[in-house]
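Lab notebook, bench 4. The sequencing result for the construct came back, and we need a structural model before the next group meeting so we can plan mutations. Quick request posted to the team channel:

Model the 3D structure of this chain.
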Amino acid sequence: MYLPSISFTDIHPARPAITSFAVQIVEKRLLHERQQASKPSSGLHTVTSAQSGDKSVTWDAIRSGTVAEITASLQTCQPLTFHYLSQLATPKPQKRNGVVVQRKTQPPEIVRTLMLYIRKQYLHLHIKVTTHVLSTLNFSFSENICRLPKIQGILYFACGAPTLLFSTNSHIGNTPAYSTIYWTLEGLSKQQAKDTEEMGQHLDKWPIIRFDNVQSYSKRRDLRIGRVNQMRIGTAGTAVEMEDYSPAAMDVDDRLARVTENKRKDLTVDSLHALIDHEHLDCMGALQWLRTLVHYIPELQNLKGKVSKLYHTKGTKKKINPNRKSKIYPLATNAKNEAKTTELKDALLDFFGQLGQRQGDYIRRLLIAGGDGATFDMMVQLKQYMQFHKDDFESFALLIPLLELWHLAWTDLSRLYEAHWGKKLSSDDPGTLRNSAAEIGRKEPAKLNKVDYYPYMQLAYLVLDVRMLDCWR
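Done. Here's the predicted structure in token form:
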């Protein structure tokens, strides 16, 4: 009965022959499905190394949602195999007397919803288990069917797993070898660099660079000549593809013409004051009062939803589509110190080169680069030093330094604490932030001109809320 080894034609009794025939024909079908999965068109393949020239290496193969795509490919190429493994991975439903027991203290709708949720989680669990088991079986058959094992290997690499784990998992078919993962990441890096350069050279795409210095202290355990502790300093950056912009904003000649007009000399405090949207400012002030009242007065908590809706309707000026995701291109890090003008120049030229903008071969359009206050100041100095070069690229006339909004907010918060923290002799003054922080046991910031953003932003809003509530007393 159910013999896979003896041909069913050699079994004379009918029942054993039929059962063995079923086993053998299903086995033949499973092997056929495995052959279908081994074809490049199955969607289960990925390159083995950076030297594979027949396919381009892309990050699309390991992006979010890939496991669901692999599951769909397996169900298409190996439906019978997937079904059998799925049945083996699916637990038997728990029943009592043939029915699901419901709680008497909960409404039937809640119990039904809970049971559907639990059933859905079990369904997702056994599908994922089946996908991983079948991917391991396919990988043991052919090293080319390695999409999911390679994704797991990259996850191990990103988490800093020791090479021993790679050796163990490569022997049981869970992941490829460490060297294979390394070659794959090398190929992905080269492909990413190629995509970044193409984006920077595209006439309809406009990148903006954001960069800052990075530091890593290298401590030597065995000190000797040539082996000393040192601080490794470099510059890391990313390029972000701009969206919803006017192509005229990239026009270099138009910007230079506007600078020549020198309208800055006409800038006054009154003209700046006129630029403020006072109606919107009053609206936000009123919403701030409403938010404080509904969050701290129990009788008004049922109005939280309405106040939140007002923030998202009347309080919103330019709302970004929540479903939109900016395209980010990581740039290769260089060993330049942005605090030195000459090295900042080299770092910027390196970033521009990764975007396909090089001396003698560049698109004459504005290039925006942003960073913190020190980075912004150094870029302004660099433009002043290089302004007498005739070529737009050499003179950095294309560079537009940008002080990032997040740093503006941080600087503004630090300014607030510098102005209102108060002196030590005035610790009893209830009008200072020092007094309020001492009352609730908060520590004084180490540097008033550079406070930790999140804890001291929370403290500032807490003091604001309490003082707004205290005014009613």
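The first strand starts at residue 207 and ends at 218.
Will bring this to the meeting.
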